[in-house]
Amino acid sequence: MCRPGWLVGTVVLAWFLMVASGCGHKAGQQARGSTGSSPIEIEAFAFRETPGLDAPIDYPDYTVLLRLSNRGDRSFVFDKMKVTWDPGNGKALTGTSTPGESNGLFQIEPGQTEEYWETSAGRTAFLLHDAGDKPLYFQVELQRDGKPVLGPARAPLPDLASLSDVHKDKMGQPLSLVESASR
Fold first, then answer.
1. How far, in Å, are 53, 71, 154 from residue 146 at the CA level?
2. What is d(CA 96, CA 118) in angstroms, rounded to the nearest whole number?
3. pLDDT at res. 7
4. How far apart are CA 67 and CA 62, in angstroms?
5. Is 80 exceeded by the pLDDT of residue 183?
6. Contact between residue 120 and residue 85 where contact means Cβ atoms under 8 Å apart
7. DSSP secondary structure string, 23-34?
């Protein structure tokens, strides 16, 4: 769900990783044989999304804005974005996004910033029930040819009631994404 033209205010928290442009190597590592690397900055902001009149369940959803900025001098390429809403009990909701262009690749040029919107899609009540008194986690991983090029990185989501409404406010609550140790 893309909302072009939205500008989110000053960035409070950011997560910096050095990744090899277009290579299927672990984020934060220099790819073998690469002469340079492309620094990618990923920022995540959480919102609450109130269900519409036609929603099957009257419970708000989480919406996360992901902003990827290429601070390097080479293109950053990936072909899949994998997003997971994880209640920590093995009942995670995972979705993938792939580009609609004919070349089948997401590409972020040097100096360019791209925004991607992800939502828990009507499953929030179930995810929070499954999490019990533990936090619900948001996780993102960018892949190329089935291998991670950035992440996985995850952050606990704040309480829904503490978040601003995605349709009313332009500034979401920053999430502090941390690269996962297990891959």
1. 38, 24, 19
2. 10
3. 24
4. 16
5. no
6. yes
7. --S-TTSPPTT-
Closest of 85, 88, 91 to residue 133, by C-alpha: 88
Full-prediction pTM beyond 0.85? no
Domains present along the chain, CATH in parentheses: 15-178 (2.60.40)
- The pLDDT value given to residue 102: 56
Strand order from edge to edge, sheet including 93-97? 93-97, 80-86, 137-144, 147-156, 178-179
* 69-93 residue pLDDT tens: 999 999 999 999 999 999 998 899 9
Residue 99 confidence (pLDDT) above 70: yes
Short-list 176, 141, 137, 166, CA closest to 65: 166
Residue 27 has a CB neighbour count (10 Å cut-off) of 22
Q: What six digits make up the tokens of 21?
A: 């442009």
CA 32, CA 153: separation in Å to the nearest integer? 22
DSSP 50-72: ---TT-SS---EEEEEEEEEE-S
Which pLDDT band holds residue 158 (cuts at 50, 70, 90)? Answer: very high
What is d(CA 32, CA 143) in angstroms, rounded to the nearest whole number? 17
